[in-house]
Amino acid sequence: MAAGQPFLANAAQTPIQGGTLNVGLGSDTPTIDPSITGQSITALIDRNVVDSLVGQAEDNRFTPWLASSWEVNDKHTDYVFHLRKDVTFSDGTKLDAAAVKYNLDRILDPKTTSSYSKSLLGPIKTITTPDDYTVAIHYDTPFAPLLSGLSLPYLGIQSPTYLKKTQNTNNTVVGSGPFILKSFVKGSGSQLTRRADYNWGPGYATHQGPAYLSEINFKYLPESSVRLGALTSGQIQAIDAVPPVNAKSVKSNPALEVKTKENPGIVRVVYLNTSRGIFSDLKVRQAFLSATDPASAVKVAFFGTLKAANNVLGPQTQYYDPSVAKLLGYDLAKANTLLDEAGWTSKNADGVRTKDGKPLTVDFVYDPSTLETADVTLFQAIQFQVKKAGIDFKLDPVDSGGFTDRTNNNQYDAVSNYYVRAEPDILRTVFHSSYTPPKGADYSHVSSLDDKLIQAQGAPDAQRKQLYSEIQHQLISQAYVVPLYVPAYQLGITKQLHGVSWATNAKPNFYDAWLSH
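Below the sequence we write its predicted structure tokens.
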């Protein structure tokens, strides 16, 4: 498939107006406001509701969107955006420079819990509006990743009128996108309706004007068998997270297709909390890393549908360094030696190592609603593997509020997630000390990489590549994380669905999508 070209069942067919697309989702999100979360499900839904200043095509080129043009100086310290003059939000508010500035100021405001969105903006010094349709962003230090961040739904522009009058934005969002959010109910799903007067789609789209679909319904269906059954019976036309055990049968079904897009960014990892407890000891972290065998665990959990990770970054990420793989490898003997050296030489009746009478227990905290069933199977496989080294990997499921409380209060030994972004600056978002919870996602509490992460965000290409290579090697050599698998969006669709394309964050775009009868 060529970059930017949507996959079609029959490219010769003419798009049909109308129809309701029902999409089954395997995971949920606690909030629908893209500015205050890093949840990928929120980005998937809101991409249809909020527009971005710039677009980024599948081949990574930047295209006009709300900004018809822009200029960037050579040092990447000054960005000037010239806005379209015909854009309105769905509540009737007109898009102008003041609206954009209000959105960015809101994200940068410490009162707004927008750690991920804020990280995408970097160390902004000033935001000014030279005229009604011009926005100028200035940095004191170079910041090259801005355009990439601005293209994501997390920095999508919302109606300032709506934001000013709405105290709690967890369940609503008002944008200028091709669809209007009719409703969002946590634990149930979202309903979107087409905006009839939309006429300012991104430059990478295959058409302009209103979307083809009349409605999109995103339904939360956490049980994989229910999700798959709804697709095969025709109740819904698309599902995410095709159950790995059923992938072959879906592909062999003449009425269905499976489309896969490998994620760029941070792979699925286990973050080891270096600030407290057992993982403050480098040897224990290295032992845990050596005691895990992701290749076999991923094969058991995902039936060969996903690749085991050999780095903290996925291969589709800019400056991914394949040489990091040599630092990884399952080695139970090495794990046992390291634990002996760390003083964990005794074992209790359950075969768990002890030291000073305390068991070698890892408190692994996770929110099941944000995971697929196969992820839990994967964690159980890891639990079995590390037990051979005498490590008790305790699975500790909590709800979304409990997860936030535990991580914000540093009451965990390990957690897991992944982040999708083609720009390697994602490493700063996840491993810079200014983003330790509750300020962000530095769950490993890493501080040793700060200087390199800041230097890399504005360095020339060759130097950026070298710095990011060093960072990737250090993350593994210091065992700050355990890479598990390279996430991929597994979209199962009926062959009646056409025109879906991929965003650079490996999520499907539905603006050009349409349904045949």
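The chain has a mean pLDDT of 94.
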